[in-house]
Automatic annotation (TrEMBL):
Residue spans crossing the bilayer: 236-257
The protein's name in its UniProt record: CD276 antigen-like isoform X2
Keyword line: Cell membrane, Disulfide bond, Glycoprotein, Immunoglobulin domain, Membrane, Receptor, Signal, Transmembrane, Transmembrane helix
Location of the region described as Disordered in the Swiss-Prot/TrEMBL record: 278-321
PANTHER family assigned to the protein according to its UniProt record, in alphabetical order: T-LYMPHOCYTE ACTIVATION ANTIGEN, T-LYMPHOCYTE ACTIVATION ANTIGEN CD86
CDD domains for the chain: TM_EGFR-like
Signal peptide start-end: 1-21
Annotated ranges, domain Ig-like: 18-125, 133-220
Gene: LOC116219750
Organism of provenance: Clupea harengus
Lineage, broadest ranks: Eukaryota, Metazoa, Chordata, Craniata, Vertebrata
Cellular compartments annotated: Cell membrane
Length: 321
């Protein structure tokens, strides 16, 4: 009886060992893909020799994405066998040609072989970069401005942080809302109300799920900040300069005009003044040469002159005589 049990156990173990050696498995590896790029879920059937693959069913969420049942059945052209030689290599990896965020999930791979049926699982994670954030501003006044920063198409969900000109973190004063699009990607919209323009320009920075900065945007044009105010004051300055130079020009013109209209009067006065000046008088009116001749009549008018005249007359008389 005991020997019968022993023989039975030996027989069972003999049966079991070849069975486990015969057992077909499929080994799969999860991976991470990037939106817009090809992704691959690696799966290999083992043992790789001494069996024939009869059927393969790649499924996601119960939906077939790739089927081989004697011939390849492309339900979706985006999904293919990564190895064109898969029937020989037994590498039945799934290639996703143009990865979408919605492709993320758990995939199952059911394989029917000449040595039995097996099933494997692999997870595909998808990452998508956020678009370059866009900033808009409104309600701009001298001491406040409302800013909005929007980035979309990212996955998984990220965050928007705000910094001012000096790099101060203003994120606590802002509010970010997240909406999931139809393709599962996220749109981030962050608002910063009543920002102080004196700290501008502000930057909004989009961080991905790994807390890495993906993009940033600074204040859009026209700049609702100090620079804009400065620019305004520059315009005002320029205006002031133009008006100022106009006024100066007018004043100069007026002065010249006044000087010109006063000139004859002044010249008269100067002339009079000069003529009254004894020194100037001598310079300006040098004794004319005839004055010396004029002295003669004076001399002649003098009593001495009459005698001289007499003498002259006498001399004339003498001459006549
Ligand atoms: C900015 O502030 C937010 C909110 O307090 C914080 O989560 C984030 O880590 C800060 N960012 C940096 C770069 O310091």
């Amino acid at each position: 009886m005991a020997s019968a049990i022993a023989i039975c156990l030996v027989v069972i173990s003999f049966i079991t060992v070849p069975l486990s050696a015969d057992f077909v498995t499929v080994e799969c590896q999860s991976s991470t893909g990037h939106s817009g790029q090809p992704s691959k879920l690696d799966c290999v059937v083992k043992p790789q020799n001494d069996l024939k693959i009869l059927k393969v069913f790649w499924k996601k969420d119960g939906q077939q994405v790739l089927t081989f049942d004697g011939s390849i059945n492309p339900e979706n052209e985006r999904f293919q066998f990564a190895d064109t030689n898969w029937r020989t290599s037994k590498v039945i990896s799934l290639l996703v040609k143009d990865t979408k965020v919605s492709d993320e999930g758990i995939y199952s791979c059911t394989v029917a072989t000449t040595r039995g049926i097996t099933k494997g699982y692999a997870r595909l994670d998808v990452k998508a970069k956020y678009s370059q954030p866009e900033m808009t501003s409104k309600d701009i006044t001298e001491d406040r401005v409302d800013l909005t920063c929007v980035a979309s198409g990212g996955y998984p969900s990220g965050a928007i942080h705000w910094f001012d000109r000096l790099g101060t973190n203003w994120t606590r004063s802002t509010e970010t809302t997240e909406t999931q699009e139809e393709d599962k990607s996220f749109q981030l919209q962050s608002t910063f109300l009543s920002a102080d323009p004196s700290h501008a320009p502000y930057r909004c920075v989009v961080f991905n799920s790994e807390w890495k900065a993906e993009g940033e945007e600074t204040m859009p044009d026209p700049l609702p900040n100090k620079e804009a105010l400065k620019a305004d004051s520059k315009h005002i300055m320029a205006g002031a300069v133009v008006i100022g130079s106009l006024i100066v020009g007018l004043l100069v013109a007026l002065l010249i005009f006044r000087r010109r209209s006063q000139r004859p009067e002044q010249e008269c006065f100067d002339y009079d003044y000069v003529s009254h000046d004894p020194e100037d008088g001598t310079v300006l009116n040098p004794p004319p040469p005839y004055q010396e001749v004029d002295q003669n009549p004076v001399v002649l008018d003098s009593p001495q002159d009459s005698s001289a005249d007499k003498k002259l007359n006498a001399s004339f008389g003498v001459a006549h005589g």
